[in-house]
Amino acid sequence: MSTRQSISSGSLSKEQVLGLLGHEHRQAIITYFDQEMTDSASFDDLIEYIISFDPKRGELPAERRKQVTIGLLHNHLPRLADAGVLEYDQRSETVCYWGDSQLETILKAVPSDEYPI
Description:
Number of helices: 5
CATH topology: Arc Repressor Mutant, subunit A
Order of helices and strands: HHEHHEEH
Number of domains: 1
Largest sheet: 3 strands, antiparallel
Structural class: mainly alpha
Helix content: 40-55%
Distance between the termini: 19 Å
Number of strands: 3
């Protein structure tokens, strides 16, 4: 496990920051990297982390896993990648987190019951 340092971007607009933090799964991805103090993770590790705190845990596990996987692949990871926060390598199924101090600061200031930071 490597230690990570967030970039102090300041380059994201207020609208971008709020948009990126507007879904609990994007919050969970950022929280995961902040808690684990690492800059890379497997796609499966992120899915397991999200499912472990997911309020929809009562659903059938295979169906919920499929929903989370589709959401990450087609929505959440691309949004975070477009903002320069991370990179997802589909071939190796690895997520490299570049970090963003604005996003992390806001998540720490407004803690969530779902994904403790």
